[in-house]
């Protein structure tokens, strides 16, 4: 159930991305690198936290039970992809908006 909600949310972000051409519909390669590196970085952070005993996998009936590593559920990778994608879309929206405002001031 949780994985389905994450996939639905990622799909919604992809629709917004397509509509406004912010990330993958603007520059697919750069967006993939950005999201991919973010996910890898956060997964390394999670693994470090798990090894240090800071993080632990909670039990939930809404999770698949599939693990990427001991105590690291597959849903975590999708959550991190969602997190990185949201961050990238927000950054691009602010950047595009600022460029449009600057172009509008320059035309006056």
Automatic annotation (TrEMBL):
It is a multi-pass membrane protein. It is found in: Membrane. Its main location: membrane. The keyword Transmembrane helix applies. Keywords: Carotenoid biosynthesis, Isomerase, Membrane, Transmembrane, Transmembrane helix. The chain crosses the membrane at residues 32-56, 77-94. Pathway: Carotenoid biosynthesis. InterPro entries: Lycopene_cyclase_dom. This is Lycopene cyclase domain-containing protein. It comes from Cellulomonas phragmiteti.
């Amino acid at each position: 159930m949780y994985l389905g909600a994450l996939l639905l949310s990622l799909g919604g972000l992809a629709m917004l991305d397509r509509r406004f051409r912010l990330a993958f519909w603007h520059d697919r390669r750069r967006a993939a690198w950005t999201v991919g590196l973010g996910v890898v970085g956060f997964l390394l952070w999670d693994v470090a936290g798990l090894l240090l005993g800071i993080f632990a996998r909670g039990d939930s009936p809404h999770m698949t039970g599939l693990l990427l590593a001991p105590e690291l559920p597959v849903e975590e990778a999708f959550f991190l992809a969602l997190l990185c994608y949201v961050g990238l879309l927000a950054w691009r929206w602010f950047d595009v908006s600022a460029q449009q405002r600057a172009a509008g001031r320059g035309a006056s």
